[in-house]
UniProtKB/TrEMBL annotation:
InterPro entries, sorted: AAA+_ATPase, ABC_transporter-like_ATP-bd, ABC_transpr_CbiO/EcfA_su, ECF_ABC_transporter_ATP-bd, P-loop_NTPase
A single cellular component GO annotation: chloroplast inner membrane
CDD domains listed in its UniProt record: ABC_cobalt_CbiO_domain1
Protein name (record): ABC transporter domain-containing protein
A single GO molecular function term of this UniProt record: ATP hydrolysis activity
Record PANTHER family: ABC TRANSPORTER I FAMILY MEMBER 11, CHLOROPLASTIC, HEAVY METAL TRANSPORTER
Domain ABC transporter: 56-283
PROSITE patterns: ABC_TRANSPORTER_2
Species this protein is from: Eutrema salsugineum
Listed Pfam families: ABC_tran (PF00005)
GO biological process, one term: multicellular organismal-level iron ion homeostasis
Keywords: ATP-binding, Nucleotide-binding, Transport
């Protein structure tokens, strides 16, 4: 029987990033939101222990791009338990990225379903499966730094946040999430006014992860998270993913099996023709 904690908690001290965020709050008028978020976070919430667990369940997914005659994915099935690390590997062009895009809600499957199934500690389903809410899925694309748009770290991470007055509660929520995301990925030592393009390869990936973590996803999808990094940055990012899997569910597509093998809880090979088979990484 596995005990799972149903609340989401940050383990790093809030003081780590208090200063840069305080100045950020003052400069763009989020001071009140920031102060309130601190008050909110200091109250200890009771942690609820539960023996239930959830699984991401992909059931018989087929996908044929509109206007084409051929299925890219053919009856894909798999189940991934919450707070675990799933790895999909396989030849180029077999359909791995296509599957990730469906999970992130960027395309709709031609048939089949993607849901969350809750189980009791006896391993039996506890309720009807629910469709995976795409708002709780984060995706980090291959080479995410190529999509950075801002000229400083803070603007990059807060891109798209509400700037108008009002919605104080939302601002408090986002600010508190930002603190947690920075702590999780170890960005707290980086000046917020630094140009993201001047960060090292590994720190660019940390920033891309933090951008997704601010949205508090339950499922984080990563397409080739180690691609293009030197050996040290690859080791750093792998270590970070190991840390993150204690907090959320990770599904990774990668060819870098050696570095990731020790993190893997479940893995699958995507065969040409879009067929997914459970298989250990061949390392
Ligand atoms: N919209 C589309 N229309 C037609 N074919 C497509 C479309 N999108 C992808 N494909 C094709 O589907 C196949 C699977 O592509 P996908 O990018 O999912 O493979 P992959 O396994 O992720 O490859 P890689 O490891 O190189 O990233 C490829 O042959 C690709 O050309």
């Amino acid at each position: 029987m596995t005990m799972s904690v149903s609340t989401f908690s940050s383990r790093a001290p809030i003081s780590d990033i208090t200063e840069p965020l305080a100045s950020f709050s003052a400069t763009i008028g989020w001071k009140q939101a920031y102060a309130n978020s601190l008050r909110f976070r200091r109250k200890k919430k009771p942690r609820v222990l539960s023996c239930d667990y959830s699984c991401l369940e992909v059931r018989d997914i087929c996908y044929r791009p509109p206007g084409t005659e051929l299925n890219i994915l053919n009856g894909v099935n798999f189940s991934l338990r919450e707070k675990s690390f799933g790895l999909i590997f396989g030849k180029s062009g077999s359909g791995k990225t296509t599957l990730l895009q469906l999970l992130a809600g960027l395309n709709k499957p031609t048939s089949g379903s993607i849901c969350i199934q809750r189980y009791g500690d006896d391993g039996q389903p506890k309720a009807d499966p629910e469709l995976l809410p795409t708002g709780k899925v984060g995706i980090v694309f291959q080479f995410p730094e190529r999509f950075f748009v801002a000229d400083n770290v803070l603007d990059e991470i807060t891109f798209g946040w509400p700037r108008q007055k009002g919605s104080l509660q939302l601002k408090e929520h986002l600010t508190s999430n930002l603190q947690r995301a920075f702590n999780w990925v170890g960005l707290d030592s980086i000046p917020l006014d630094k140009d993201p393009q001047l960060l090292s390869g590994g720190y660019k990936r940390r920033l891309a992860l933090a951008i997704q973590l601010v949205q508090t996803p339950d499922l984080l999808i990563l397409d080739e998270p180690l691609a293009g990094l030197d050996w040290k940055a690859r080791a750093d990012v792998a270590k970070l993913l190991k840390h993150l899997k204690k907090e959320l569910t990770l599904l990774v597509v990668s060819h870098d099996l050696r570095e990731l093998a020790s993190l893997v809880d479940q893995s699958w090979r995507m065969e040409t023709g879009g067929i997914l088979l459970a298989e250990r990484p061949p390392v």
